[in-house]
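User: quick one, fold this
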Amino acid sequence: MQNKKHSLEFEKPLLDLEKQLEDLVRSSKDSDLDFTNEIKAIEKKIEQTKRVVYADLSPWQKVQLSRHPNRPYALDYIEKIFTNFEELHGDRLFKDDAAIVGGPAELDGRKVMLIAQQKGRNTEENLKRNFGCPNPEGYRKALRLMKMADRFSLPVISIIDTPGAFPGIGAEERHVAEAIAVNLREMARLQVPILALVIGEGGSGGALGVAVADHIMILENAYYSVIS
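Assistant:
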C-alpha cells in the first residue's frame, strides 16, 4: 500500500484505487456481505494503473522516485540479500559517520566487504544519518574498510544512495574534498574486485567517493548525476 503522506502527484490515481480497496476490505470484514469479486476487480485495476502510471515517466519523475521515502534503503537490501553482516565503525581519525555503514558480510557463502550509504526513515534517523549526506569521516571509514578488504582479499560491494556529500562548514574544515579525492585514488589501486550499485540517488562526488569500481550498476528509477 502506498503511503499517502509521501505520495507523489502522478501517483494519485493509484492512491484513490488503493483507498477504495482498503474500504472494501474493511467493509467485508465488518459485515456479512461478500465483496470478493469487487476486491478482485479493483486489484486488477490497480495493477493495470501501475503499468500505465510508471510506463512513461519523465526524467524529473524518475528523480522523484529515486528520492521516494518508501523506496528500500541500503540496510533493507543488506538484510534481505546478505548474511552475517558485522557493521564496523569509525575512521580512526575523528568519529563514526552513520551516513555510511560498512563491514564484512557473506553473499551466497562468499565473504565480501560492504560499503553502503544509508538514509533515515524518520526525523530521528535522518538527523543521525545526516539525510544520507556523508561527512569526510564517512569516506575515510569507507577507505579503511576497503583497505581491510584488500588485505584479506575480500571483494568490495558498494551500495550508493546519497544526494551528495555534506556541504557544511565542519565538513569543509575537515577537508571533505580531500577525503573524496583520496578515495578515488586509492580505490583505483585496490587489487580486489569492486562492484558499485546505485539504488536511489547518485549525487555527484558524494556518490563517486565510494564508486570507483570495476563494474557499476544502477537500478530502475535511480540516477547518477554530475552535480547535487
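User: anything notable?
Assistant: The mean pLDDT is 92.
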